[in-house]
């Protein structure tokens, strides 16, 4: 296991891999690793000759400075978690300066409008920050395959567009959402939830599962009203948005079409901590 903190040293090391024509799998993360991340690493580890994991809390994708400040930074335990399960992985944990070279700005990307839906509406600039860092990391690592969790489904679609629009030669692999025993989608932010909030947060997935059942017989707007009513009953949860959207355009579903695939997306606040989740409906 090698941990690189500078991109120059990493690329010098990787040049050997690139020339060997072996497959390089990449798992970009912001650290505070949980079993969801470990499942992505596992996938990469099984399907590639080498795996590289980046750990970098990317400042340009935070639209809320308090969220950035409070984001857990746990490099030592992250390295420990990876080493105890996987042999021969490479970890890349650069500094903000090394990545942004004094200009901590994001580039604006056009993702055919999917950047303006849901998370894009509620976190202005977020996807520009994600696109900027993911492109930079892809250019440094030059992976064959990169692994992203479906909890951030909109991010996954954004990354696929980024690759397509910039002709990047990397395959993007979406991986199933990994859940805690009570159904809560795994997220680094869960670390900040109290035991009580964590128990309340189980309601998110219960509601999503119910929306999947309802989708067979009810319209998107009937389901949305039901979700709003159910969540109002919980004293700790504040709904930011619930939306049933077409998985390609991420536009809200006005009338169901048999030709399209839909997902239900949700964002809530519990104890001032923002959690997102989603479920496939058909
Ligand atoms: O999903 C994340 O952890 C981040 O958005 C990513 C993809 C590592 C970019 O900073």
Chemical compounds bound to the protein? pantoate
Radius of gyration: 19 Å
Main beta sheet? 6 strands, parallel
How many domains?
2
Report the average pLDDT across residues: 96
CATH architecture tag of the largest domain: 3-Layer(aba) Sandwich
CATH class of the largest domain: Alpha Beta
Derived structural class: alpha/beta
N-to-C terminal Cα separation, in Å?
42 Å
Strand order of the largest sheet: 1-4-3-2-5-6
Order of helices and strands: EHEHEHHEHHHEHEHHEEE
Q: List the uncertain runs.
A: none
Note the overall shape: globular
Number of distinct helices: 10
The CATH homology group name of the largest domain: HUPs
Please report the total strand number as a whole number: 9
CATH topology annotation of the largest domain: Rossmann fold
Portion in beta strands: 15-25%
Summarize this structure as a short list of keywords or feature phrases.
binds pantoate, Rossmann fold, alpha/beta, 3-stranded antiparallel sheet, Pantoate--beta-alanine Ligase, Chain: A,domain 2, 9 strands, 20% strand, 282 residues, 6-stranded parallel sheet, globular, 2 domains, 41% helix
Write a short abstract of this structure.
The chain is of the alpha/beta class and 282 residues long.
């Amino acid at each position: 296991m090698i941990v690189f903190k500078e991109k120059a040293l990493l690329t010098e090391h990787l040049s050997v891999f690139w020339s060997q024509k072996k497959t390089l799998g990449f798992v970009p993360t912001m650290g505070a690793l949980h079993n969801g991340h470990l499942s992505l690493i596992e996938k990469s580890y099984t399907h590639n000759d080498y795996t590289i994991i980046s750990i970098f809390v990317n400042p340009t994708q935070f639209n809320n400075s308090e969220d950035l400040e409070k984001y857990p930074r746990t490099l030592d335990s992250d390295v420990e978690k990876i080493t105890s399960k996987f042999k021969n992985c490479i970890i890349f944990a650069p500094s903000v300066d090394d990545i942004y070279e004094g200009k901590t700005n994001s580039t604006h990307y056009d993702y055919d409008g999917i950047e303006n839906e849901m998370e894009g509406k509620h976190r202005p600039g977020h996807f520009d920050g994600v696109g900027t860092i993911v492109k930079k990391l892809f250019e440094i690592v030059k992976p064959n395959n990169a692994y992203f969790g479906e909890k951030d489904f909109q991010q996954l679609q954004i990354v696929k567009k980024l690759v397509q629009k910039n002709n990047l030669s990397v395959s993007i692999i979406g991986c199933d959402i990994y859940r805690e025993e009570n159904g809560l989608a795994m997220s680094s932010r869960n670390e900040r939830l109290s035991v009580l909030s964590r128990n309340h947060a189980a309601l998110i997935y219960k509601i999503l599962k119910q929306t999947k059942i309802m989708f067979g017989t009810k319209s998107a707007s009937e389901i949305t009203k039901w979700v709003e009513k159910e969540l109002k009953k919980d004293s700790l949860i504040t709904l930011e948005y619930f939306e049933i959207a077409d998985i390609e355009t991420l536009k809200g579903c006005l009338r169901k079409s048999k030709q399209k695939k839909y997902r239900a997306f949700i964002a809530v606040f519990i104890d001032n901590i923002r959690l997102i989740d989603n479920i496939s409906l058909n």
